[in-house]
Amino acid sequence: MPMLERTYRASRFEEALAQVKRELGPDAVILSSRQVRGGLFGSTTEVEITAAPDGSVPASAISTGRTIARSSEPSGIEWRLIRMGVPVTAARTLCTRIRSASPREPRTMAEVKSALSRALREEMIFGGAAGVATRGRARVTAFVGPTGVGKTTTIAKLAAQAALIDRVNVGLVCIDQFRIGGAEQLGQYAELIGIPMEIADDAESLGLALQKLADADLVFVDTAGRAPRDRGAVSAMAECLHRAGEPVEVHLCMAAAMHDAEMEAVLERLAPLRATKLTMTKVDEAIRTGTIVAAQVLTGLPLAYFTTGQRVPEDIEAACAERLASLLCGEEVN
Ligand SMILES: Nc1nc2c(ncn2[C@@H]2O[C@H](COP(=O)(O)OP(=O)(O)O)[C@@H](O)[C@H]2O)c(=O)[nH]1
Ligand SMILES: [Mg+2]
Hints:
The chain has 334 residues and is an alpha/beta fold.
């Protein structure tokens, strides 16, 4: 029997699931669930569930790891995760881990949180926060990502903490490829914190800027872009970051409220920058924090930071499994 998969959309997960059960029966197999743009102009958020009737899903779909959760299955934690935007396969994997750690399903919220946190620690990669305490890491860290995602603010938070709390020598560089005045905001932070800032527009000028900042133990590099779809600009940025005469560690920034398709597009477009760490910004704005798991699965990069608001320098933390577990359990960010 061919696999008869169909997609259902609604504004809430429960409504989409009800449609699935109504049309495909109570034992329908959920193949995936994701957040999409809905409405005539893509202005609203909808949940899309792809499902197939029981019996129409070939064994190959199961063996290749293509999802599999039944609409009738009441496993509380698994549904909670899927509803939170965790990809169905990841939710299944996490639940398998939880079950193998303890035969009894966790009941209280505290039990769920601690079981989930252990499973996340085993399944996902955390770490990679920049800092002198983390030996062996690059001195220079650049933040890349779409315009408005929070790169400059993230750098201001990290720079302020390092300079004012840890008392480390910090320097800033802004790569302003088009000389569009993109360094102004970072310059204001540099002045407030009392640290030097240099501006660069290509590999050579970045190399010179890094030489000028030779005394700094940590250098944060901001990237100001204006043409997100301009592939030439992305490869020029890559050239700049990779040929600066010193290793530059590249953090990709994604906002926790981004949709799957947006994350995929950003990842594809910025692939030449060869990011090695992932920072999730605006976690405070995300309604479905499972997107953080989706982003980690999609990129395969270690999660370095969560940013949780606009306050500089308070609203940033090193990403960890405990915090992600409590976010997935619906706890407030602040
Ligand atoms: N709610 C929230 N807003 C943030 C966060 N990080 C940055 N912002 C805001 O997002 C906007 C764009 O930030 P900016 O750092 O200029 O983004 P950039 O274009 O990537 O450099 C600013 O209004 C910031 O205050 C965050 O973690 N949470
Ligand atoms: Mg900026």
